[in-house]
Amino acid sequence: MLSRITDSHLNTQRAQRIEAGRQKLAKAEEQISTGRRFQRASEQPTDASKLLRHTRRLERVNQFERNSENARLWSDTADQALQSINREMIRARTLAVQGANETNGPEQLKTIALDIRAIADSLITLSNTKVLGRPVFGGTTDSSDAYASDGTYQGDFGIVRRTIDTGQVVEINSSGPEVFGTPDIGDPMAGDLFQMIRAMADAVEAGDTSEIRRGIESVDTAANRVASSEGRIGAVSQQLDSIDDRLGAEKISVGTRASKLRDVDLAEAVIRLTSAEASYQATLSATARGLSVSLLDFLR
What are phi and psi of 263, to 5 degrees? Predict the structure, then answer.
């Protein structure tokens, strides 16, 4: 028994074919206009899930890069300050050696002592070097300065950390006492760098060669302490160089994979659009011919 195909059924099929062609054409146009393979996750659920993972990883990599940049700013600023501190210590030592010369008269000794005291003031300024408004040698303090003008430490011993990769944290600061030593009220020459330099200036002005020589030895000890801090910062810089290279490579790799999932191939998209247009026009043409058939056509 033959089943009867009604005009209504034929028209429904025609409408479905036209709609399917229209949607295919619209999708091809949308891909070209947006540059994206899909607009909604429901269109490509598997690729959308992969793209989401890659996007989240890229966001984390970008955050790690920002953390690393901040860590480098801290370490570079501290390193420059330590180099300047080291130069000032060398100047102080040189002046002390000059002051130990017993041929100096009172006026010469006073002039040398003034120069050494100026170095102490310069060291106070360097001890308050800042990064983004925070003292690099102040630990985690909220104070604007690590040291007061008299050399009193106003910071704390908090550690400044930055997360530069998953499970990888770097410590980027040295506290003031780690760099400049700790004060000694009873024996300033054995105290922190500021006490020591000022005590050495007093010894030079008094012409006390024994204390001057002791001060020179103390400066050498302090120089070793500063060098140790420079070494720690150098190790941090090397660690940051390594992580920056790795993060940069990962960013390119993950970005490439994300792009393949997200971005449309323009050449292929143009071919699909041309094909969709031709298919849609053919469907419309065939439908128009089908609808033009009349009863007279069957009676001929």
Answer: -90, 140
Contact (Cβ atoms closer than 8 angstroms) between residue 197 and residue 96: no
Q: What confidence score (pLDDT) does residue 229 get?
A: 93
- Residue 45 class from Cβ within 10 Å (0-12 exposed, 13-18 middle, 19+ buried)? exposed
What tens digit of pLDDT does each residue of 202-254 get? 999 999 999 999 999 999 999 999 999 999 999 999 999 999 999 999 989 98
Buried b (16+ CB within 10 A) or exposed e, 176-195: bbbbbbebeeeebbbbbbbb
The model's pLDDT over 43-67, given as tens digits with 9 standing for 90+, comes to 778 877 888 898 899 999 999 999 9
Alpha helices in 100-144 (DSSP H): 106-127
Kindly report, residue by residue over 7-33, the tens digit of the pLDDT.
566 567 666 666 665 666 566 556 566
90 touches 195 (CB < 8 A) = no
Query: Which domains, ranges and CATH numbers included, belong to the chain?
Result: 66-258 (1.20.1330.10)
- Residues 6 or more apart in contact with residue 100 via CB below 8 angstroms: 204, 209, 212, 213, 216
81-to-29, 181, 184, 196, 256 alpha-carbon distances in Å: 59, 16, 24, 19, 41
Instruction: Quickly tell me which residue has 């002046």 as its tokens.
Output: 95
Provide the whole-model pTM.
0.75
Which 8-state DSSP code applies to residue 4?
P
With residue 57 as reference, give the H or E element that holds it. helix 45-99
CA angle in degrees (0–180, nearest 5) for 215-81-232: 90
DSSP, collapsed to helix, strand or coil, labels residue 90 as helix
Q: Is residue 59 a contact partner of residue 255, using CB atoms and an 8 Å limit?
A: no
Radius of gyration (Cα) for the chain, nearest Å?
A: 38
